[in-house]
Known about the structure:
By secondary structure, the protein is of the alpha+beta class. Helices cover 55% and strands 16% of the residues. It contains six helices and five strands. A hairpin with a 3-residue loop joins strand 2 (167-174) and strand 3. The longest helix has 46 residues, at 21-66. It is elongated and about 95 Å long. 30% of the residues are buried.
Amino acid sequence: xxxxxxxxxxxxxxxxxxxxxxxxxxxxxxxxxxxxxxxxxxxxxxxxxxxxxxxxxxxxxxxxxxxxxxxxxxxxxxxxxxxxxxxxxxxxxxxxxxxxxxxxxxxxxxxxxxxxxxxxxxxxxxxxxxxxxxxxxxxxxxxxxxxxxxxxxxxxxxxxxxxxxxxxxxxxxxxxxxxxxxxxxxxxxxxxxxxxxxxxxxxxxxxxxxxxxxxxxxxxxxxxxxxxxxxxxxxxxxxxx
Length: 241
C-alpha cells in the first residue's frame, strides 16, 4: 500500500504542482521574445560596430601611409576615426544598456537623414562614392528609415571589405509608397591591399534579409555582370501627405 501511494504521489506531483499548460505556453512565448530581442541587438552591434571598425582600420592605414608626405590628410583621417568611434560608442552603450535591462535613452537615431555623414566617413577612408539620391528623406520616418540606413551601411561596409577599388555607386529613391536602395561596387582583383584582410562572419546578408522580411520588403544581393556586385532592396513606406 505504501509503495502504491508513493508511486501515485510521484505521478501526480508534477501534474498538480507543476506549471499548467497555459503557464508553459507563456514561458515559451517569453523565451521567444527574449531570443528575438537578443537577435535584434546582435544585428545592431554587427551593423554599427562592424562598419566602424572596418572604416577605422582603413582610415588608420591611410593615415600611416600619408603621415610624412601629407600631414593634413593624415590629420583628417584621424579626425574621421574619432568621429566614427564616438558614434559607435553611442550604439554600444545603447545595446549594453538593453542587455542589462537598464532604462536607457531611445535607440541612436540613425536614419536616412544621417546618410551624408556615413558617405563622408567612407570618403575619408579613401573610397570613391557616387551617390544618386532622389526624394525627401526627412519625410520617411520610423522603422523603414532606420532599416534603410542599416542596409546601406552593411552594403557599403561589404564594398569596403571585399571591393576591388573603383567607385561605389549608391542609389536611394524615396517615393510615397516605397524606398528603393542600391549599392554597386567592383569585384575581383585590383583592390587596395588594405581592404583584403578582413574576416567575414557570414551574418551580414542573412541579418539584412531577416530585417527586410519583417518589413515585408524585398532584397537581393549578387553579381552584377562579370566584375560588379549589387545589393538592392525595396522597403514599403507610408509618407505623410
